[in-house]
Amino acid sequence: MSASQETLVKALIAAHDGGPLVGPVDNADVPADIAAVYALQNRIIAGIGPVGGWKILAGGQGEPLCSPIPANRFFANGAVLDAKTHRHFIAEVEVAVLLGADLFGKPNQFEVEAAIASVNPVLEMVANPFVDRDATPRNLQLGDLQSNGAVVVGPALASEVRGALPTLPVSLSYDGKTVKEVSTGASWADIVVALVWLAPHAEARGFPLKAGQTIITGARIAIPLGTADLVEGKLGDWGKVSARCTY
Q: In terms of residue numbers, what domain contains 173?
């Protein structure tokens, strides 16, 4: 890693914790392709600490995009988040799976399903460490752990929710007011396929999927946070997840 890339990694880590915003970035330090995106993610994780889980888009077209998420960015249901210091600016409602067993090698779909302990509702808080996000190249945003700022994990849902996922009613509310509702998303099969792909990918990068990790599977709703205090995601009548934000 060059000195300028090392400086960029340190700057991105610091900016997510209230340090100076990053930008503009020299073109030479912007990831040129997906391999370089993942190399930047690896360097950022190495500078933060252990992996607590991953984010991946289940049900999308082509090869999935993914990122490891540091363990210190996972929070329990009802957590109070410092949205100002950590620069959270969008809240997303997602479906996650909690692993009950390690996934090494190249597992098949049955091995992946057996390793999943539960399905959980989550809030992902998207964070912006850049001076001008709109002018920041997409590959740099992807390299910045796909803009992850925090993940709040709600309680496990009944296992029967797996069959309801494609048409699952999902809502996001700010301070008790619903701001968006949807009723489509990735199916259980989509999620399993995504993990079949992710397991060998994660292991090849040195961060294998392990018991206790949470895998988030893509935003079903994403809305600017503003200055909302109470943020709540609801998955129909199956369950919900909430957090409070300070500014």
A: 3-246
